[in-house]
Amino acid sequence: MLVTVNGETRSVEPGTTIAMLVTQLAGESGKDQRGIAIERNLEIVPKSEHASTVIEEGDRIELVQFVGGG
């Protein structure tokens, strides 16, 4: 099924959760999974719901990586 992740169309398997997608993307990019905020269809998905939130056809997912500094 097709979804949009950070503005790019991407194919994901039915039943994929937010947590599964984050793990997959982190593996591809080598980025740390900590400090990531997820927005699904313009609503923030709390970290406590990542494992239970199933992605649906046509969802728009935005992942934002927090960067610390000083």
Features:
Ubiquitin-like (UB roll); 17% helix; 31% strand; Thi_S; ThiS/MoaD-like; Mopterin_synth/thiamin_S_b; Sulfur carrier protein ThiS
Report on this model:
With 70 residues, the chain is α+β, with helices and mostly antiparallel strands. It has one domain: Roll (Ubiquitin-like (UB roll)). Helix content is 17%, strand content 31%. It is built from one helix and five strands, in the order ββαβββ. It has a five-stranded mixed sheet, with no helix packed on it. β1 and β2 form a beta hairpin. The radius of gyration is 12 Å and the shape is globular. The model has no long low-confidence stretch (mean pLDDT 89).
Present the secondary structure layout.
Layout: E1 2-5, E2 8-11, H1 18-29, E3 36-40, E4 43-45, E5 60-65
Parallel strand pairs: 1-5
Antiparallel strand pairs: 1-2, 3-4, 3-5
Total number of helices: 1
Strand order of the largest sheet: 2-1-5-3-4
The geometry reads as: globular
Strand element count: 5
Percent in helix = 10-25%
What is the CATH class name?
A: Alpha Beta
Supply Rg: 12 Å
| Structural domain count | 1
* Head-to-tail CA distance between termini: 41 Å
Sequence stretches where pLDDT stays below 50 over 5 or more residues: none
Mean pLDDT: 89
